[in-house]
Every structure is written in C-alpha cells, then in structure tokens.
Design brief:
single chain, mainly alpha, 2 helices, 0% strand
C-alpha cells in the first residue's frame, strides 16, 4: 500500500467514524432536518436565479440600445 492509498483510506475511515458518531449523538432526525433545510435552500436559490435571469434579460436589451451609439459601432 502506498502512502497516498493509506492517506485516502484513513480519510474514508475517519469520515465514516465521524458520521457514525454524529448519528449516535444526535440521531437520524438530525440528518432528516438538515436534509429538509438543504432542499429548501436549493429551491430558494433556483427561484432567485430565475428572477435574476428575467431581470437581466430586460436590462440587457435596454442597455445595448442605449450604449451602442456611444461606442461608434
């Protein structure tokens, strides 16, 4: 086993041990709750992205018409 392989294996084992410790301390409900919060955050970000896209499309059209003559193109 190389040093790199041993380091990777140690990280995997350590991550699993940490997850099991949190599960033992806080329970499965903790993971369910943070999953719901994460899902809500993703929905909020998607909605914000859609709103920003709609707003930027309108702004870019006006911006091009307004600034094109100044560029001398």
């Amino acid at each position: 086993m190389t040093v790199r392989e041993a380091g990777r294996l140690g990280g995997l084992v350590g991550g699993r041990k940490g997850g099991l410790t949190v599960k033992a301390e806080r329970g499965v409900e903790f993971y369910q709750e943070i999953g719901k919060l994460g899902g809500q955050r993703v929905r909020d970000l998607i909605a914000a992205g859609r709103d920003a896209e709609r707003g930027s499309r309108r702004g870019n059209r006006r911006g091009r018409k307004q600034f094109a003559p100044d560029r001398g193109v």
